[in-house]
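Submission checklist for the structure archive. All mandatory fields must be present; incomplete records are returned to the submitter.

[x] Identifier: Ion transport domain-containing protein
[x] Organism: Gulo gulo
[x] Residue count: 478
[x] Sequence attached
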Amino acid sequence: MSFWSSISFNLAVLMNLLVAFFYPFKGVRGGTLEPHWSGLLWTAMLISLAIVIALPKPHGIRALIASTILRLIFSVGLQPTLFLLGAFNVCNKIIFLMSFVGNCGTFTRGYRAMVLDVEFLYHLLYLLICAMGLFVHEFFYSLLLFDLVYREETLLNVIKSVTRNGRSIILTAVLALILVYLFSIVGYLFFKDDFILEVDRLPNETALPEAGESLASEFLYSDVCRVETGENCSSPAPKEELVLAEETEQDKEHTCETLLMCIVTVLSHGLRSGGGVGDVLRKPSKEEPLFAARVIYDLLFFFMVIIIVLNLIFGVIIDTFADLRSEKQKKEEILKTTCFICGLERDKFDNKTVTFEEHIKEEHNMWHYLCFIVLVKVKDSTEYTGPESYVAEMIKERNLDWFPRMRAMSLVSSDSEGEQNELRNLQEKLESTMKLVTNLSGQLSELKDQMTEQRKQKQRIGLLGHPPHMNVNPQQPA
């Protein structure tokens, strides 16, 4: 489908180039090419065809298409070639739309879902414009170039920068209209005569008296030079000063005779002029009584409307575009540094057996998950395995619990290996501690035996120093 969409866009660009360079097509006809140029085109087309057959590469296909279109233009003419290109674009878009409807199931969801499907309506409108360019007028092909906005996200963000904060922009524009209305009222009341603008009138042919007109009309136009008959062509021209004065008067007109005309003038010329409405009004003299009021009027319009209000609108648009750009950069950064399936970040795979790139390409490849979902959807339910039945039920319930959120087998295995190493180290430490405790226990028992032996010896020495048959009474005299 993306290939068919690219074909439609390239055809739209090509048809608009032909319309831009050769419209109107009256002087462009087929069969007007010189023989050597015609032979060169045939040679280029045959060489391109041979290259496409031998090496089917995109550049060879483009060269073949370009040479074929040029050959058609100079063989059958520009309009028939444009008609053929338009018909091919319509057929291509019909195939695209049928594929889009089949993939999305647009008609199976009911008419309400079909009407609310913006993407389907967009492609339907695209097909309608192709048909109008083919059967109504070639200028409708110019609308197809807006497909570039739909294809490029950057241009889409430019449009969103205006539509996202549309309410703020509209309210600011309403404030600008209110200010324009107030300045128009002030201009109508006090500076009505200053609204004199230069205009460029369309040139009108001099009306000459027809045969049978009155003598008065003949007298009035007696000095007009008649080119057909050569009469009065040698009569003296009017004075240059009078002619310049009349032209000057005719090139200026009052544009504030009514309040509506004042509003239109201030809105049209005031907002489009860099210095405000003062740039297009009459330049007053310093000796006029309303000179100071006119200066204040021009400065207030410049500061309030041109500087403040218009820059507010531009600021809202620029800030919105900056926010959209930062959001896009943040999304791209998340996609680069975070696994789409499990949500684990890149730093979780530092100093692990599996790198982050290997993880997102082999272990958690999102296209593998998509293929698995498609397999579950197209496979007969009676042939499901246990995991497939579980996943099919989860997909039907729109439940994503079957995704491995915040976990991966590679990290689990590496973590288990780390735990085993820690257990091994702890076991070794425990064994060494047990050996030490055993040694200490042996030493303590030996020390205990020694202490026991020493006590026994002391008791023996005490018994030998004080025999039991001699009772010495210290209070009895010798």
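[x] Structure attached
Curator remark: The CA atoms of residues 191 and 294 lie 8 Å apart. The first helix runs from residue 2 to 22.
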